[in-house]
Write a structure and sequence with these properties.
- The protein is of the alpha/beta class and 201 residues long.
- The protein has a single domain (2-199), classed as Class I glutamine amidotransferase (GATase) domain (Rossmann fold).
- The chain has helices at residues 12-21, 32-37, 49-58, 61-70, 80-84, 188-199, and strands at residues 2-5, 26-29, 40-43, 75-78, 88-89, 103-107, 118-123, 141-146, 148-152, 158-164, 166-174, 177-180.
- A 7-stranded mixed beta sheet has the order 2-1-3-4-12-11-10, sandwiched between helices. Strands 5-6-9 form a 3-stranded mixed beta sheet. Strands 7-8 form a two-stranded antiparallel ribbon.
- The longest helix is centred in the C-terminal third of the chain and has 12 residues, at 188-199.
- The two termini are 13 Å apart.
Length: 201
């Protein structure tokens, strides 16, 4: 069973439907016992970093996430869910992230003439071959919607990058922690393959 963490963020239902389409039993919950007993856990989300951290704290989910990670349960962050795993974000100065992985979230520079947020399909490069990307070639396209991007502190964690004026750390893996800035649930066959790789861990 895959548990999706319910913290009132956007985009949770589309992740649920994508996982169900792959034959998985999925539950959306913030119940600690259910989350800790799940085979795998997903933290999706669309929205603002500060608001999201406020809700995770309000619902007592920060400590639950720490327990899940310590338990070595496979854990997948998607979009905002990736950003929350890191130390901080320029979107919410002074707000601490979960700090599970080292790095910070920064805003796209405004001096490149780029449209912000970045919305659309971008190709991925794979500097380190990750388990989520088994069977997926360099250059495959996935779907992004974001105004802020990850600068990971440890480049060994980075398994996919994309270019949008700057190099974006688009996916990370470390031990049982996996995260994508893009939306695999909206990235057609490639995205479903990434989710299937997570299911098969």
């Amino acid at each position: 069973m895959i548990a999706i963490i319910d913290y009132d963020a956007g985009n949770i239902r589309s992740v649920e439907k994508a996982l169900q389409s792959l034959g998985e039993e999925v539950i959306i919950t913030r119940d600690e016992d259910v989350l800790l007993s799940a085979d795998k856990v997903v933290l999706p989300g669309v929205g603002a970093f500060g608001d999201a951290m406020e809700r995770l704290n309000e619902y007592g989910l920060v400590s639950v996430i720490q327990k899940i990670v310590k338990k070595k349960t496979p854990f997948l962050g998607i979009c905002l869910g990736l950003q929350l795993l890191f130390d901080s974000s320029e979107e919410a100065p002074g707000v601490k992230g979960l700090g599970i992985l080292p790095g910070k979230i920064v805003r796209f520079p405004s001096d490149y003439g780029l449209k912000i947020p970045q919305i659309g399909w971008n190709s991925l490069s794979q500097p380190n071959k990750g388990r989520l990307f088994k069977g997926i070639d360099d250059g495959e396209f996935v779907y992004f919607v974001h105004s802020y991007y990850l600068c990971a502190q440890d480049l060994n964690d980075v398994v996919a990058t994309t270019e949008y004026g700057v190099t974006v750390h688009a996916a990370v893996e470390r031990d049982n922690i996996f995260a994508c800035q893009f939306h695999p649930e909206k990235s057609s066959d490639v995205g479903l393959r990434i989710l299937k790789n997570f299911i098969d861990l």
